[in-house]
Design a protein that fits this description.
mainly alpha; two-stranded antiparallel sheet; 2 strands; extended
Length: 139
């Protein structure tokens, strides 16, 4: 069943008996995607990085880098080579196109575990879930 005005229009232009093919995927839960980012935002707010000074100045907290690091710690990373021959871990994409609902739910649980073990160590899982829901209500 077409789910958007564009897809309805596309189907209406087809002639009876005309063959079509396509790739079908179950749509991922947008609310759950927002919940993941609320959880990550909670962890980011509580995270206090070490104060250091470099030759380039003091590093700033960066949510995108934090999200990628947590994703890697949750087991969703892959090694890539730098131009100097060394390697680093890059976070896998968590976009709707690159991860189905089941894999995303698994990632959520692993991210929750990482945050409980590394940052939110003084909170229970229920407290974290309650705070995540509060963060979600502001989104």
């Amino acid at each position: 069943i077409p789910d958007t005005p564009e897809s309805i229009e596309w189907f209406e232009k087809l002639k009876p008996g005309q063959g079509v093919s396509g790739e079908f995927k179950k749509v991922r839960n947008y609310h759950f995607h927002k919940k993941m980012f609320a959880l990550l935002n909670l962890g980011f707010e509580y995270w206090e990085p070490a104060e250091i000074d470099t030759k380039w100045g003091k590093p700033e907290k960066n949510f995108d880098v934090f999200r990628k690091n947590v994703t890697i710690l949750a087991g969703y990373g892959e090694p890539v080579f730098n131009i100097d021959g060394t390697f680093k871990m890059e976070a896998k994409s968590i976009s709707f196109a690159s991860m189905d609902e089941e894999e995303f739910q698994e990632l959520y649980q692993k991210v929750l575990t990482v945050l409980m073990n590394k940052i939110l160590t003084n909170m229970s899982e229920d407290e974290i879930k309650d705070l995540t829901e509060k963060f979600l209500s502001f989104a």
